[in-house]
Amino acid sequence: MKSLVTGGAGFIGSHTVDALLALGHEVVVIDNLSTGRPQNLDHQKGNPKLSVHVADIAEAEEIEGLFEGVDWVFHLAALADIVPSIQHPRAYYRSNVDGTFNVLEASRAAGVKRLVYAASSSCYGIPDAYPTPETAEVRPEYPYALTKWLGEELVMHWHKIYGFPATSTRFFNVYGPRSRTSGTYGAVFGVFLAQKLNHKPYTVVGDGTQTRDFTYVTDIANAIITAAGNDAAIGQRMNVGSGGTYSINRLVELLGGEITYIPKRPGEPDCTYADTSKINSLLGWEPKVSFEDGVANMLAHIDYWREAPLWDPNSIAEATKDWFKYLGKEG
Ligand code: NAD
To answer: How far apart are CA 137 and CA 222, in angstroms?
Structure first.
């Protein structure tokens, strides 16, 4: 089997590459290293089954030849931060929408047998129902969410029009070793682990009672590989979550340390919580890593975040100015 992973030098991508190589696949990675890090694949250096191509999926001619003979495509490459998507929507549109178009067309031309798209639970915005089913209304709250949704629509349209064998999997709050440490203020784990390493208080948003469906990265890799291998997944949109939802206060309790509070942001839900009954009943998939074990494993790898930026309430206020400016308006 030959698989291609776009975004394979990133957080989820590199774990997917590990899982595919462990299954004996030949693996082709396409990544432009915009937020990914070659070090994420260092432990696979010299593996003759892995080839890494530094290329931009937004440039069709850079990637076309790389899909020959590929059985499965895991399309994970995307720009994936909230604030930069508000500041630089064109870059997000190019990587996430044009890029997805190019990956679809290259895959179709090469006759790949299956494509799995990394969609995002951010398409639900602030949903009405928890746990949130796939049938919930789509309400993107910022350009990142919109571009990921547009990518999903392209993928599903290619299935509808061309019979292209694609699946869209909607990830909820993925965490685990190698989660992004790019300069951008982003997901809570990277922020808190750098603060822990530097003995600084955790910058908890609001009162910390908001909850997230924190899903461990190896469970995500396992879900998308399961989806690729099962015909029942073709043409489906499926949530992938942990089966629970955990408060930020609980996370702090597990990490241990002091807290400082920062203001709540507009457009963010108080809860994310996937209804995973669809992927469970269609594919028999279920998550394996408990929140407690996942956090313990992050702590075991905490040195990774020594290079991560250290945030405090002032630098966060500065970094999120545009978030409040554009999303905080009435109406
Ligand atoms: P990441 O930033 O670690 O990985 C994305 C990878 O894509 C990076 O290696 C980056 O260099 C690469 N990339 C970006 N633009 C590219 C381009 N134009 N050409 C080639 N490569 C490009 O982020 P991640 O958390 O691993 O996210 C992987 C995928 O999962 C993304 O599609 C993201 O939208 C989706 N997702 C992630 C989460 C999460 O909680 N982390 C949740 C929902 C969906």
So the answer is: 27
Q: According to the model, what pLDDT value does residue 330 have?
A: 55
pLDDT tens by residue, 140-193: 999 999 999 999 999 999 999 999 999 999 999 999 999 987 777 888 999 999
Place of tokens 């949130």: 132
Q: To 5 degrees, how large is the angle CA 177–CA 80–CA 160?
A: 110
Tell whether ligand 1 has an atom less than 6 A from the beta carbon of residue 212.
no
Give distance in angstroms: CA of 79 to centre of ligand 1: 6
Nearest ligand 1 atom, CA 144: 34
Task: Please give the domain boundaries of the chain with CATH numbers for all domains.
Answer: 2-174+215-240 (3.40.50.720), 178-212+243-272+290-327 (3.90.25.10)
- Does residue 180's CB lie within 6 angstroms of at least one atom of ligand 1? yes
Contact assessment for residue 291 and residue 212, using Cβ atoms and an 8 Å cutoff: no
Q: What is the pLDDT of residues 45-82, one digit of tens each?
A: 999 999 999 999 999 999 999 999 999 999 999 999 99
Q: Does residue 144 carry a catalytic annotation? A: yes
